[in-house]
Amino acid sequence: MTTIRQILAGKPEIYSIEPDATVFEALGLMEAKNIGALLVMKGGLLVGIFSERDYARRMILQGRTSRETPVRDVMTSKVFVITPDTTSGECMMHMTDRHIRHLPVVDAGRVVGVISIGDVVRSVIDDLRFTVRQLESYIRSGG
């Protein structure tokens, strides 16, 4: 099964924002990069994650304004992280069990990337296609 290290090889950039930035600034960056979440970093340390879901639940539904609200007030601060050696199948399980769509990847205490549910689904599908091709080849060869 594919590891997160392999997936990250094709995702060189990590998008993040400071906790004191406004939600409006975070949304602007998310729109510009066409992403659904930003890591919230302070001094090189992961302090949270801000996602479209955070915006919907903690901004819109609570009547806050994005130009005045700092990210730190609405981010998810308890962040579940994975390592580069985690498999895509394990990620899918964690994402499903925790109802999350983005997982920061941490290696030796340093953030090295972010994996989205889309990345994981593509990887799992590729792994399954490979397995099917191998089985078909085995069957055609007479086993």
What does this 3D model show about the protein?
The protein has 143 residues and is of the alpha+beta class. Helices cover 42% and strands 20% of the residues. It is built from five helices and five strands. It has helices at 4-8, 23-33, 52-60, 88-98, 117-140; strands spanning 16-17, 37-42, 45-51, 102-107, 110-116. Strands 1-2-3 form a three-stranded mixed beta sheet. Strands 4-5 form a two-stranded antiparallel sheet. Helix 4 packs across helix 5. The protein starts with a helix and ends with a helix. The model has no long low-confidence stretch (mean pLDDT 93).
Sum up the structure in keywords.
two-stranded antiparallel sheet, 5 helices, 5 strands, alpha+beta, 42% helix, 143 residues, three-stranded mixed β-sheet
Write the layout of secondary structure elements.
Blueprint: H1 4-8, E1 16-17, H2 23-33, E2 37-42, E3 45-51, H3 52-60, H4 88-98, E4 102-107, E5 110-116, H5 117-140
Parallel strand pairs: 1-2
Antiparallel strand pairs: 2-3, 4-5
Helix pairs in contact: 4-5
- What's the helical proportion of residues? 40-55%
Low-confidence stretches: none
User: What structural class results from the helix and strand content?
Assistant: alpha+beta
State the total count of DSSP E strands. 5
Shape: elongated
From N to C, what is the helix and strand string?
HEHEEHHEEH
Structural Rg:
18 Å
Overall average pLDDT: 93
Indicate the proportion of strand residues: 15-25%
Q: Given the structure, what is the number of helices?
A: 5
Walk across the major sheet and give the strand order: 1-2-3
- Please describe the biggest sheet, giving its number of strands, its sense, and whether it closes into a barrel: 3 strands, mixed
Distance between the termini: 23 Å
